Predict the structure.
Amino acid sequence: MSRSHCVLDCRGMSTRSAEPLDANEELGPPLLDGLLVVELAEEIAGPFASRLLADAGAKTIKIEPPRGDVSRRMAPFAEPAPHRETSTSWLAYNTSKRSVILDMDTASGRRVLQQLVGSADVFVSDRTPASLNELDLNPDELRERYPQLIIAAVTPFGLVGGAAEWPSTALTRAHASGSAAGVRRNLGADTGAPLMAGARVHEADGGMALALAVWSALIARERFGHGQIVDVASTEAMMNMDRVDISIAHNDGGPPARPPTKGGSAFGGRLECADGHLIAVTPQSHQWAGLIKSMGDPEWAFDADGSLIDRLQLGEEAGDAIEQWAGARTRDEVFRALQENSAPAGPVLRPSEVMNSAQMQVREFFDRLEHPVADSARYPQFAARWNGAQRVARTAAPLLGSSTADVTTPHLSPWSPAQARRAGVI
């Protein structure tokens, strides 16, 4: 591959000029403009699903108890002292929403919630069946009461089955799905106490699955004229994301081996360059040949007759030589050499390098949003673009209860917002 055809270098810099995808398009409204979503969910999975819908233009009302969403208290925080408005989990998964406080322990609070749900197109929930029954929000009854409503539930084990009411944590969900096995293996801890991936990386899988299912249900509503009950078990969503490990275990009868960490592996691995790291993977013969060509066809890689020695026959000498070659060059030099010779490789980028790359800027993937407490920060967009629809003018995560009066006033009769607040309803 010639250098002029490289798409990305080690700094994420595009080597060809490009304009924003929508630069010359006459655009319509955002795809989900006019859609009303009511969310009764905390932490990550449910809020992520709603955020994806909001990113596509849906008006999203987030119902919070008086204490606020649990994720408001999840570290890390955008400033040194913990604050309910600056949890990075809260900020990341709740952009472009409206926060409404309802005390669901009161009959009046539950009544307002039921009215809001009845007025919605989509109801996103992470409550178990028993909890929904207590709120008079049984999915089957809601479907009879509001035939157009899409009831979208994401719970650890689904709405049906013996485990539907089981309490769980991020740790138990990761292990119930098998997802944590990969974490343990990659850390070299195949035995011992359970481990959990940092930053709860698996928790968003259920939200992504739910958002996709809601889009499907919206299409079905257009075709058939009625809503659906969407039931997502987050543990099953995690299993979908672990399809490679699961397929290997199924076919080989055991968990996959820990992947190589050094470039001396016959199939590649991590290469330490002069200014950073890079991953090179060469499981096929032509890819190995590309790696050798990138190195200038060193003598140790060839037989006396000039044929390339099979990589499995080479010992530590080859690994040491590869590491020395990479260590004497910059990450960009190694990456370009491998790419030009069809040897699969990718730079290990720091978060700042990703966010500041020309490729991300061309795609306008990160929005800079202003928050009254957490200040200015950049947030990832929806990971898809539509050439015929406007992008949503996104807003930062809402302050606790900032839209309570505006949203609930039509549903408070005969009370005023002040009376409802004194009564503890909102």
Remarks:
- Residues 1-18, 183-189 have pLDDT under 50 and may be disordered.
- The domain at 259-349 is CATH 3.30.1540.10 (formyl-coa transferase, domain 3).
